[in-house]
Amino acid sequence: MIWNLGSINLDNFYQLPHLPGAGETIAATDYRQGLGGKGANMSVAAARAAARVMHIGAVGADGIWARDRLLEYGVEVQHIAKVSAATGHANINVDASGENNIVLFPGANIQITEQMIGAALTEASPGHWLLMQNETCGQIYAAQTARTLGLKVAYAAAPFDADAVAAVLDDLDLLVLNAVEAAQLRDATGLELADLPVADIVVTLGSDGCEWVSNTHNRTETYPAYPVQAVDTTGAGDTFTGYLIASLDRGLPMSDAIDLAMRAGALMVMRHGTADVIPDLKNIQDHDFS
Q1: 238 counts as catalytic
Q2: What's the CA gap between 149 and 172, in Å, rounded?
């Protein structure tokens, strides 16, 4: 089982001819709203990858529909609290090539208390996974509590902050980064990934594939990307991470878990949207990647 201390956002998508520059005003050609947030995206992805997922988070009165939608998508929501703050939201600009930029308001995501986290994790069992990102508060407390209870801890280091990573590094079993974040972590720590005190580190490389640094087995493996035509890269990394953790939770070896996660991410970039359009296992099984 996966316990995901994760953000829940209301995603506002604006389709643009190109991403705006400094001081530029540009008219959107399309607009839609959907469920998002790195945490919610990963919970949905893990649930669609056939894992049991309990989301730990918070929404405001304006986000009750987001909690209900997570439940519809197979995520357990008993530990999503309603708080007085507005629900987190993201304004997402997407250009014609599928590239994006995002403005994020954290809102209720940073109103999660240690009491909320502790109440959830006391129901967890040894061997379960705790998954976290950097869009909520409480990661240090959650990681330390999870380790005490015998859970495995995974951290998706986004949005990247070197101090946030350093604060939980000693409690991690798995660290997931993209190539830019990995470079920033090397610069901040002065260490190569193979020298970090984490058993497994997975670095997503976009169209160049993926790299797995196994510090347990002292080896690094690379995996080529699946060639697809991207229309929207939003949520692809979250989809990858959710599938990766779900696959490991179901007992797949790391190489197979990475391959399934890469296929899920490849399908995701062919779709417009975030949590609402994350592919399920049948989508992946039915797609011809050759």
Answers
A1: yes
A2: 14
